[in-house]
TrEMBL record:
Domain Peptidase M20 dimerisation: 235-337
Keywords from the UniProt entry: Hydrolase, Metal-binding, Zinc
Provenance organism: Caldalkalibacillus thermarum (strain TA2.A1)
Listed cofactors: Zn(2+)
Record-given protein name: Amidase, hydantoinase/carbamoylase family
């Protein structure tokens, strides 16, 4: 496989200090590095980041490339109406529930090259290793690529996995507009899908025996502890709020300070409140304002309308919901104090998901089988695994992230650690498909 010139730097950095002793049992580190680099070339930004937002042509191109690799690995490839891609390896018991593994290939704007992508390629590497060594699973095995996990396009997220598990409200979905002002239906049709096909993507949970997702940690716990991989024991559920302050636009020079209804000043005070509230409610809660839209946006115009997005997370539902209530109360209080209006809309609310003890025990056994020490930790980030985890036995494996950097071109995981994770995943899946 040739590495595109524009992303060859990624392949060279991955391979620079790679220990080829990790190449065994059908697992090949150079193949994984090459595929990471080939996907990195799709949507590559000037800052050497990744720009493949959900339902974009770039996400579609990445899926098509993965489809090609699935076929090369001897998998039967299909795509559902939500754009989720599946590569199936039949087992001895063809009618048995399927064991699945995978993640996503979409990214945030100017994101990194490991988030999601590593989970897809790790699952595919296991299938390739099984094919190369002649291993035939008992249960069927599917590598899955979920659509629009990040939610950068519609300020939502987990779209493909929610569609597969029947969690989509059609009326709400059709009301969505993307960041370019396009309707959800138009966006679907632009990549060759229809609303009817999208809703038909729902799958019976009884068809799925288990799901395992490999993902970079996006934190520093593993790096600081010196562990290449970790076992997730629970996934925090994100709640997203869209908060709009509505004041009065006016001339920046002719409107006295005491006569202003400045929406941006209100939003600024609110943003500081979001920063301070989580620690008052829970030691594991976090809150982030990651997006701010100012209207009309003129240098010499008092902002009349400001919309901010708030991302609230905790591994416990009760305290996460208390935080959401406190944030909304803060917005309303600030609006009253500043004589502006406020509108609050919840755009995402996902339940925190504990990982079943039986799945954790299988993961621990897999880690120990490949000669590593197990470390169990929670996930503060949302993943497709948290959607499936409400319906089927689900597990997650974290890979060490350098300095915990993610959603950023500097995102990095060493190839040695990535390949170790593949070996753990392979042993874990072999228990599940037996």
């Amino acid at each position: 496989m040739d590495t595109p010139q524009e992303s060859k730097w990624l392949w060279e950095r991955l391979m620079h200090s790679y220990n080829h002793e990790h190449d065994h049992s059908g697992v090949n580190g150079e193949r994984l590095a090459t595929r990471l680099a080939q996907l990195a070339a799709i949507g590559l930004t000037a800052e050497r980041g990744s720009n493949r937002i959900g339902f974009s042509q770039e996400e579609l191109a990445a899926k098509n490339l993965v489809k090609q690799w699935m076929e090369e690995a001897g998998l039967e490839v299909r795509e559902d109406g939500a754009g989720n891609v599946f590569g199936r390896l039949e087992g001895h018991h063809r009618q048995a529930p399927v064991v699945m593994s995978g993640s996503h290939v979409d990214s945030v704007p100017n994101g990194g090259h490991f988030d999601g992508t590593l989970g897809v390629l790790a699952a595919l590497e296991v299938a390739q290793a099984w094919q190369d060594t002649g291993f035939c699973p008992g249960k069927p095995y599917e590598v899955v690529v979920f659509t629009d996990e990040e939610g950068a396009r519609f300020n939502g997220g987990l779209t493909g996995s929610r569609a597969m598990m029947g969690e989509i409200n059609l009326d709400q979905q059709l009301q969505l507009q993307d960041i370019f002002g396009e309707s959800f239906q138009n966006v679907l049709e632009s990549i060759g899908l229809t609303v009817d096909q999208f809703m038909a993507a729902k799958r019976d949970p009884a068809e799925i025996a288990a799901f395992v997702e490999v993902h970079i940690e996006q934190g520093r716990v593993l790096e600081e502890a010196g562990f290449p991989v970790g076992i997730v024991n629970g996934i925090a559920g994100p709640c997203w709020l869209e908060v709009t302050f509505i004041g009065e636009a006016g001339h920046a020079g002719n409107t006295p300070m005491g006569h202003r209804k400045d929406a941006l000043a209100a939003a600024s005070q609110f943003i500081l409140e979001v920063e301070s509230l989580p620690s008052k409610i829970s030691s594991t809660a976090v809150g982030t304002v990651g997006k701010c839209q100012v209207h009309p946006g003129g240098v010499n115009v008092i902002p009349g309308k400001v919309t901010v997005t708030v991302d609230l997370r905790d591994i416990h539902r009760q305290t996460r919901d208390r935080l959401a209530e406190a944030v909304q109360q803060a917005a309303q209080t600030i609006a009253r104090q500043r004589s502006v209006q406020v509108e609050i809309r919840e755009t995402l609310n996902v339940e925190p998901v504990p990982i079943q003890q039986a799945m954790q025990e299988k993961a621990i056994q897999a880690v120990e089988t490949v000669g590593l020490r197990p470390l169990v930790l929670p996930s503060g980030a949302g993943h497709d695994a948290m959607v499936l985890g409400k319906y089927v036995p689900t597990g997650m494996l974290f890979v060490q992230s350098k300095q915990g950097i993610s959603h950023n071109p500097e995102e990095w995981s060493d190839l040695d650690h990535c390949v170790m994770a593949v070996h753990v995943l392979k042993k874990w899946l072999e228990q599940l498909v037996s």
